[in-house]
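Page 42, continued from yesterday. The earlier attempt failed because a stray header line got pasted into the input along with the sequence. Redoing it now with the clean sequence only.
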Amino acid sequence: MDAARLMDVCDATWPAARTWNAGPWRFRDGQGGGKRVSAATARGPEAAGQIDAAEAEMRRIGQRPLFQPRGGDDVLDAALEARGYARRDPTLLRTGPIAALTGLPIPPVTAFAIWEPLAIMQEIWAKGGIGPARLAVMNRAKVKTGILSRWNEKPAGTAFAAVHDGVCMVHALEVLPHQRRQGVAGWMMRKAAFWGAEQGASHIAVLVTEANTGANALYDALGLTRIGGYHYRQHPEDT
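This time it went through. Structure tokens are written below.
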């Protein structure tokens, strides 16, 4: 498993409304669904010399210029920094064998795979800032499910999982504040793994910001290895 493959999985399991290639760039129409589905990415090293064209294309569809430098994009990253683009949200790609998370039985009535999302799932996501535009992103994925967790006989959290190219990627994992630090997120990850295995996935993966120490500790404990990452370069007008 390598970082380039995982980024392809990310694009397929958390898809933009529209993607297209122009010159050395890949563009995304996010329709309000957040940075990940709106940022432009380089298709080759010549992108660093064609930033003006990328900015114009993003403005053409009504988006502020936003870039996602990935591994190997050092020249582009330096060029964007020189233009005043701020570095935002450094993010890790983490993955591991799905079998590592399916060896422990999930306690009864703890986690469920459900699609379409129930109202309570949408409410939990909304409390975490995941509203209709991001729910639309979820709906665009092909092989997908929601994960609902209960703890102490009450709703505890929710997540979204989708499978592409043998990888089950988990997105939008949210645990209600009063249910945190009780193992809820771990059980949701294990439920996603069981569901992913049923879809033929051999690996499970997540994206997590470097700053999210709690989530990174969980993924360390689950054996999900860091294999790469990315960050955003945000237009000076947005900083």
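Notes: The longest strand covers residues 86-97.
Reminder to self: strip header lines before submitting.
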